Structure formats: structure tokens, C-alpha cells
Structure prediction request, 288 residues.
Amino acid sequence: MAEQGSFSLAAERLHLTQPAVSKRIALLEQQLQCSLFDRIGRHVSLTEAGSALLPHARRIVQQLDQATQAVRDLSGGVAGELRLATSHHIGLHRLPPVLSRFSRHYPEVQIDIDFLDSEHAYELIQQGKVELAVVTLAPGGDGSVIARPVWHDPLCFMAAPDHPLTSAPQLTLAALADFPAVLPGLGTYTGQIVKGLFRQHHLALQVSMATNYLETLRMMASVGLGWTVLPASMLDDSLRSLEVEGVAMARSLGTIYHRGRSLSRAAQAFLATLEDGAEMPPTPLADR
Prediction:
């Protein structure tokens, strides 16, 4: 209810009728002797008491999931459901061979994959909604999340072949700052790396367009809408690498999971499979 903001949407997600959900909420509010939701028209929002209860409710759901998984693991085999989150880029370029190998070795595991931004994946891990995520690791640490690096992912300045920057004999960050850029959202972990680099050199970025989809950035840069920053593995014939003097950027890709969560056998097997194949090159998909 707190996430859906609607009794009808919550009922649909829980596969219950709306009156059944309303009755359960009313009983809980009666037991606690306080209102948990403000109901204004069709919109539902948490009260102060509801906000205080929410993190405890999430922990209860997480503990129930762990209890269920613990019972399943007693069977001895690697089976059951694995809820996995990953970014679109990693899902396209890094995970295919890992998923193929894992499915061959553990056919009894059903993988439920959510494709979303790395920043959103961190939130789902913190809330206990996803057991494991394969994402761009956050530049800073989070005490509730365990991060395990898997791939070192060099980043590269790129531009269309006919862009003025490609003919410059020697490039500096100041030269790039004079031209518009199409970049990952500056709130993303990758965008923070770029923004931090220019801020460190007291330079302002001219961001004409931003998106979290790296394949879209590659296309926009290739048609001349601006220079960009992408993983070096995405460089193709439609773009030219821009070698900037004294600059080397990279991000770390890896796995995250909640520190307080006991990983299922399926999750542990997936981690082992992933780390065994960490040295494999990115998958060259024809997605341009």
C-alpha cells in the first residue's frame, strides 16, 4: 500500500479484492489504535505512524522470505527462485554468458530479473525486495550493503568521426568543456565520475542531453549531438576515441546484497558462477 499509493493497485499486486485489503488495514489500525494512511480522494499516503511502522514491516517480510528460503535449502539441492536486479548495460553486455552457464548447471533455479538503474537497485537491496543485484558499484560505501567488485570497466571519451574534437592534435578537459556533451545522468554513479572529474579541474560541463541508457548515448554521439563518456568496450566504427591528456576514468561493476541477509543457495551459486567468469570479455551485441 505504501508503495502503490492506492488500495486498488495494492489489491491487484497481492491478488486480493480491494475490500479484503481495506479490511486488513482497518484491523491493523484498530490493533495499533492509530491511523496508518491518509485517504484523500483516491490517493493514499502514509501518516507519521505509518512511516514509523514501514521499516519494521519491511524487515518482517524480509525475515519471512529468509525463513522460507532456509526451509527450501534443507532439501540440499540448488533450486527455487532467485530475484536478481541488474542494469540494462550489464544485462546486455556482461551477464549473457554467466546466465547461460548458470542455467546449464542449475536448471532447477528460476531467475526473476529486474532491469533498472543501478541506483534504484541499491534501494531495492536496502529494502530487502531483491536478494542480489549486479550493477555499477556506488563510489561511496553503504554500511547496510555488501559490494563485491567483479569487473573493472574503463571509461572513454568518444565523439562522432567528424566532430571537431577528433582532429585536435592534443586534447585537454578544458577543450571538451567548450563543446556540448551527451552524458549519463549526472545523478547516476557513472555521471558522478564525469561530474567529479570536471569539478576537480574547476570546469563547467555543457550537457545538452542526458539519459541513463548507454546505447542511446552511443547513438546520439554517433550522429553528432555531442561528445560522450561510455565504457571503452562500447567503442565501435560509429565513434572515435578521444584521448585526453592526463585523464583515465573507470568504474567498478559488481554484485551487491544486504549485509543482514542470509543468501540462498541459489544466490551463492550465482555469485560463484559470476566470479568464475569475471575475466570473460563483454558480449559484442548488435544493438546499435
Observations:
- Residues 96 and 283 are 7 Å apart (CA to CA).
